[in-house]
Amino acid sequence: MSLPDSRSPGKQSSPGLQSCSVVQLNVGGHVFTTSLSTLRKHPDSQLAFMFSSGQQSKLPTDAKGRYFIDRDGTHFGAILQFLRTQRLPTESVLEVYQEALHYDVRTLVKQLQDSAQLFGETVGRQQFISRVPNYLENLEVLVRVARAEAIAARHSAVIVCVLRTEEDLGRYDHAVNNLEEQEVVRFGPWKAPPTAIDLLDCIKMDVEARGYKVRYEPHSSDRGFLFKTNDGFLYKLIFTWW
Hints:
The protein has 242 residues and is α/β, with parallel strands linked by helices. The chain has ten helices and seven strands.
């Protein structure tokens, strides 16, 4: 026997579902069953606010009467798991972290920030990237150039100039002048310990996070001249399309 639906037309709304009530959710096509007390477990979270007495009736429902949240629900189960058991996810940690931020589950956000996976990403890699001038803008340029070179080709290559220090910046024009009008995307210089290879690894990670398959190698000219590569200058980022 189904429970009476306080949201059904023609019925008086109750003051709100009891905290022990079973709730069905449709999060972007992923269906979950939980309790209202679980959703309200952290009163300062966005989830608790959404399912508070004053807001719950405003939530849209799907064709089967389940509360509908118009967001990708791939990792919502990990949020529920934490609310139920306090267990942290061991897979897709960064993705779950983004969901925890969205739903403002602050306890989960803090614990994930302290986890080994996120500590290295947020305190190490992201802090380094923030010290590389115009990193995100140059990443966009890099992808755009690669796509422009992809017509009727299996691979496309983009020349990347990595300038580790201010001294390298002074040699930039000479290095680029030897490229015979090839477009170059420049990164650096920066003031932080990581090397040119560390930066290239960051670029590779961020490009692959967008769904591209990419690798890098030292760049050499058609005349066989290998540009300085031990800690900077010219590299070739190679995209594989098929």
